[in-house]
Design goal:
Blueprint (H helix, E strand, L loop, with lengths): L4 H26 L1 H18 L9 H29 L5 H27 L15 H9 L1
Helix pairs in contact: 1-2, 1-3, 2-3, 2-5, 3-4, 4-5
Length: about 140
């Protein structure tokens, strides 16, 4: 069922907004590296938790896990760009930050390719085969 899908999609972006803002400011106090590692751990942990059937029996549960994973995603951005800027020589700083930023697109291409491989021809029957784990759960676990 697609009921609540709009909240699921929005929850990740709301989490990113909060994570970027809160952990961005917090990284000034605890350090960029600890904030980056915290964001990566939050994203990986809650992204993986969102794939477990016992923990996500409803779309509301899935929305909650994805919101928290979004906090982790957002938390990585300020710390990562700040670290890239602070640690690179002045002469190549712009190129280094641009290179780091380009990996957002590399990741998007990877996830799109993974989805294409996993869901190719399976969209009509994705949730009808109750004898196996739905493909979206496998996708969520791999993306975590």
């Amino acid at each position: 069922s697609m009921e609540g899908a709009e909240y699921l999609a929005a929850s990740v972006f709301l989490g990113m907004l909060l994570g970027g803002t809160l952990l961005g400011f917090l990284s000034d106090h605890i350090g960029r590296r600890p904030a980056l590692i915290a964001g990566l751990l939050i994203n990986a942990t809650f992204g993986l938790l969102s794939s477990f059937p016992l923990l996500t029996p409803t779309i509301a549960h899935l929305t909650m896990w994805r919101f928290i994973a979004g906090i982790g995603i957002g938390a990585t951005v300020p710390s990562l760009f700040s670290l890239a800027s602070e640690w690179s020589p002045k002469e190549v700083r712009g190129a280094v930050v641009t290179f780091v930023a380009s990996f957002w697109m590399v990741g998007s291409l990877f996830v799109s390719g993974l989805a294409w491989i996993l869901f190719r021809g399976n969209l009509e029957h994705a949730d009808q085969d109750h004898s196996s784990l739905p493909m979206w759960r496998i996708f969520a676990a791999l993306c975590a």
